[in-house]
Design a protein that fits this description.
alpha+beta, CNF1/YfiH-like putative cysteine hydrolases, 22% helix
Length: 267
């Protein structure tokens, strides 16, 4: 049986340590992370310990008897009702929103932030793969809009951003930073760019025409502009690039390998 633990690791080279607002869960197969903000929901952010085990196996780790739903991710902004992703071949999308209870929704990544959204009032959930392209194309506002159309209220939504590459380790071209800034909404690009700089989501790089981009900070700002309150958003501080024992990282290893994140709808 899975249970919250104090991990028996206290080494500077491993991220198995106390994380405010997050809990390590231990079970027979290994460890995974849960966000305390989503404690009412069965969910998990898995590590590379679970490599080779996909959602069909991982769903049984976080809950019993749930259906499995996942997209074939394409770094876009398509968000589908989970019932449209019932089995392989999985539809092309980067986000799912529950439309029945007992659905487990899954996304994967290896530097891009996995984002789980839950509505404790209705039991509905969403899961999104939010890389810079998806964030720039406004995948999270699209997921929120689908939840709202189903009856959720923005003030009820709780959001968890899983492990992802940190801004310190994520160099991007200025055109990428500009597309991310445009995704904040509004008419003035310079204002949006300045807003990202103000929260250190974009930091100028030493190389001309490039920046350091912290996607989790950019996503937080976008969510707040979409009506999600700051205290309803929790971001895991672990960096996939800096934790090779815990996470795959495309930027670090240039190898196609991922870790999975999933959440179960209550209704």
């Amino acid at each position: 049986m899975a249970e919250a633990i104090d991990p028996p690791f206290d080494r500077p080279d491993v991220g198995f340590n106390a994380l405010e607002g997050w809990s390590w869960i231990g079970c027979y197969g290994g460890y995974y992370l849960q966000c305390d903000r989503l404690a009412e929901f069965e969910h998990g952010f898995f590590t590379r310990q679970w490599s080779g085990r996909g959602p069909e196996v991982l769903a049984g780790v976080i809950s019993a008897g749930v259906s499995v739903h996942r997209p074939s991710q394409i770094h876009g902004a398509v968000v589908l009702p989970a019932s449209q992703a019932p089995s392989a071949p999985w539809p092309e999308a980067d986000g799912l929103v529950s439309d029945q209870g007992g659905q487990s929704l899954w996304v994967c990544g290896a530097d891009c932030p996995p984002v789980l959204i839950a509505d404790p009032a209705s039991g509905r959930v969403a899961a999104c793969h939010a890389g810079w392209r998806g964030m720039a194309a406004r995948i999270l506002p699209a997921a929120i809009e689908q939840l709202v159309r189903s009856g959720s209220l923005r003030e009820h939504l709780q959001v968890a951003l899983g492990p992802a590459i940190s801004g310190t380790n994520y160099q991007v071209e200025r055109r990428v930073s500009e597309q991310v800034a445009l995704a904040l909404g509004g008419d003035d690009l310079s204002e949006r760019f300045a807003a990202l700089e103000a929260v250190s989501a974009i930091v100028p790089d030493g190389e001309p025409g490039r920046d350091r981009l912290d996607l989790r900070l950019a996503i937080r700002l976008q969510l707040e502009r979409e009506g999600i309150t700051a205290d309803a958003i929790s971001a895991c501080p672990l960096c996939t690039f800096e934790e090779p024992l815990l996470f795959h990282s495309w930027r670090r290893d240039q190898v196609k390998a991922v870790q999975w994140s999933g959440i179960v709808a209550q209704s």
